[in-house]
Amino acid sequence: MRLVMLLAALFMPICAAQSQHVDWSQWNYFVGDWIGEGTGAPGQGNGGFSFAFDLQGAILVRKNYSEFPATEKSPAYRHDDLMVMYPDGGSWSAEYYDNEGHVIHYAITFNQDSTKVIFTSKYQKNTPSFRLTYTKQDQNHVNILFEFAAPSEELQFKPYIEAVAVRKVKD
Description:
There is one protein chain. By secondary structure, the chain is mainly β. The protein is about 10% helix and about 55% strand. It contains one helix and ten strands; from the N terminus they run H-E-E-E-E-E-E-E-E-E-E. The protein has one helix at about 1-20; strands at about 30-40, 45-55, 60-70, 75-90, 90-100, 105-110, 115-120, 130-140, 140-150, 160-165. The chain has a ten-stranded antiparallel β-barrel with strand order 1-2-3-4-5-6-7-8-9-10. Strand 7 (about 115-120) and strand 8 (about 130-140) form a beta hairpin. The longest helix has 19 residues, at about 1-20. The chain starts with a helix and ends with a strand. About 15% of the residues are buried.
């Protein structure tokens, strides 16, 4: 038991030192609750998302939902997903999960002035590729573009969903 406590005492400062050096400032704009409406191949819909730090600031979690009304061809539908962003050896990565069973591994980049964050799925042969881009418009608006590339069209992305989100005003 003493050995376990000694190892824990030695390991904790190392972990704390590593997490203190992560600069999340590029992400601060996105933190909070957002609502929006969008258009695209799935049809007119609405939804919202939130970005919140978790695990004492070690990760950033995005929870997202989209609601689509019934059409002549399909019933009403709600899409839910969860994405976890984390520092990954000097860059950023994310893991995406949704209620349809999709799992996407993203590499993340920011443009030079941090007005755009781009999530690009890690390329796998015979699998569609995805790109999700958030572009800051002003303090309370962000444009969202979700694109895909068919397996036969390696990284030739085509728009699938475009949306504008507005920062939710706190009550």
